[in-house]
Specification:
Oligomer: single chain
Number of domains: 2
Structural class: alpha/beta
Number of helices: 10
Strand content: 15-25%
Helix content: 25-40%
CATH superfamily of the largest domain: Zn peptidases
Amino acid sequence: MKHWMLLLMCTPGLVLAQHKKKKAKLEAQENITVTQALQQHVQYLSSLQGSNGEEMALQYIIKQYQQMGLQPKGADGFVQEFEIDAGKQFTGTTFFSVNEVAAQPVIDYFPLAFSATNQVKGAASVDLNEVGQPWFLDVKDVLEENQDNPSFNLEAYIKKTADKDQQKGATALLLFNSSSIADHLAFDKKDLAQSLSLPVLYITKEGMRKLFSDSTATFNLTLGVGFSRKIIKAKNIVAYLDNHAANTVVLGAHYDECGTGEGSLQHNIGADDNASGTAALIELARMLKKYAPSNNNYLIIHFSGEQEGRLGSKYWVEHPTIPGTPNYMVNFDKLGSYDSTHMLTISGYGTSPVWGNLFQWVNDKSLTVQLDSSACGMSDHEIFYRSGIPVLCFSAATHDEKGIVHEWNQLNYPAVKEMVQYAYHIIQSADEKGKLAFTKTTERPAILNRKKGT
């Protein structure tokens, strides 16, 4: 009888222990599943190439939200389309041939954006400029003379020289640089300055070596310059989790650029910038779909045009797809480089007094976190901040290109998983705070370093 009594007394403890063990096992399995899902997203998105990459990335992301059962909240289903002026392009009417041998654009030469649009034929020598012919200009001497002059502007010098040379009889200006000093000349698609009165081409070092090896020879030249403006159709992806709440939280990441696709907007996403943020946003949405804190709705936006100047987020703020002002915005950008030197930085904690209180007791024992009060980082959250909306931005990469990982198999997926869970806990903790007050921060960030779990 006593043995039966002892067994009955021990049973609740055994059941509790088994329950805890089962819960721990389920949590471990869920962590593995989230980590694997993050890797799957990044591997796929960072593998896309070519002009089709944008549409393939868009369809992949939309499919994730369709499978979750989230509502579409763009202007057309999940999509909010907008136009991007990709700037000035030099067209097929831009050409350059030497002794009837066609030079290669970009490799051998390129026009400067302030060049006149015209076609010219002539015979010219590198060492001798004659009236009525194209003229050569070596920028070597002026670069050497102004090495220590910080106010020297080479483009201004070229424009002034081109006008003078045109008045003296030059029909075109062919620039080159025989010095070892970098001139930093490039085709600037954003240059809207008034065109000069004659065509201006820059001949690269490779072009000079291939086409003008004998500077004393006379060369038969044919050249032309033509420009157009390129307009790109870009697309934000917008999904919605409706809790029928008074306030809505925006969760965002950009999904454009940093691949090897064609065009100025390359949706062949780089592994870290920003397939890592895109993957994190998808998995955070999945967590919220399972159990979303009920006092806010959640609008998930994958922005296009971030690399072109945060144009997608700017367009959404100016053309919102939900009524009212968002409660706050959380952004994910370049998460996968997390290691001992690239800690997780959460910027924007100074944009609301609520953040300071939350971060005193919401932490992650696995991550080393640096809190940055400023919200003036180069990503989409800045657009929301400048519209008077509290923001946070999660990022693990430095502003240095060396801090960005480009290969999908080099990312720290367990750390990204921890960041997703950390963001979820912050969202959960902010849920009882109602409409968050907005605070304008200083442009100069105030940094607070925090060790793991502190």
